[in-house]
Amino acid sequence: MRQNNFIDILHFRHACKVFDTNKKISPEDFELILEAGRLSPSSFGLEPTRLMIIRDKNLREKMKPLCWNQEQITTASELVVFKSRVSDLKAPTNYVSTMVSRRMGGDKSTYEAYQQRIRGFLVANDLLGENIINWTARQAYLMASSMMNCAAFLGIDSCPIEGFERTPIEKLFGIDTFKERVVLIVPFGYRLKEQPSKKYRISMDELVEYK
């Protein structure tokens, strides 16, 4: 049977609950994880996700009660807060114009038409109001997945955290919520204890339907 190393990586990855505080991720490995995020896909290539790396111990202690007192917040080697841009994505905007023009060179009429295509997508999917965060957040999840898989490849653990109080977290960091929102938190580090090898997933027959 052909061995698939990528599947082995996915078996290694799990939602690590407590990290070993005595083990630190090397700068070189963490840069690779960040690069995996930077190279991730995003809808229309707009790259709305921005990252905050939280290394200040006092900030982490303040974050912990706002994250349901989860141990990962203070035990992880690296703590990444994923933010999604909001107002800049409501095309047409200067931000969207800049991001689109990278691909289309100096042909202003072409990238202005593409901006309108993006605008049409937002209108058709009711994403111009508060719902836009539902779209931009999905781009952050794509990035987080790439980063967590890269970490697993390097033998580094992670845990995606949705359990946090968004408004207090945003106030803690002085975030202008008109411009951006916090959508996900992912700690990275090394597991304190070995995890059970068995993964609980639905069967392939239940997952996949062919038409």
UniProtKB/TrEMBL annotation:
InterPro entries linked to this entry: NfsB-like (IPR033878), Nitroreductase (IPR029479), Nitroreductase-like (IPR000415)
Under Gene3D superfamilies, the record lists: NADH Oxidase
Q: Which UniProt keywords apply?
A: Flavoprotein, FMN, NADP, Oxidoreductase
Annotated Nitroreductase domain residues: 12-190
Lineage top rank: taxon: Bacteria
One of the entry's Gene Ontology molecular-function terms is: oxidoreductase activity
CDD domains attached to this UniProt entry: NfsB-like
Which Pfam family, any one, appears in the UniProt record?
Answer: Nitroreductase
Look up the record and name the cofactor or cofactors this protein needs: FMN
Q: Where are the transmembrane segments?
A: none
Family, per entry = Belongs to the nitroreductase family.
| Family matches, as PANTHER family | NAD(P)H NITROREDUCTASE YDGI-RELATED (PTHR43673), NITROREDUCTASE (PTHR43673:SF2)
Q: What is this protein called?
A: Nitroreductase family protein
The organism's taxonomic lineage, starting at the top: Bacteria, Pseudomonadati, Campylobacterota, Epsilonproteobacteria, Campylobacterales
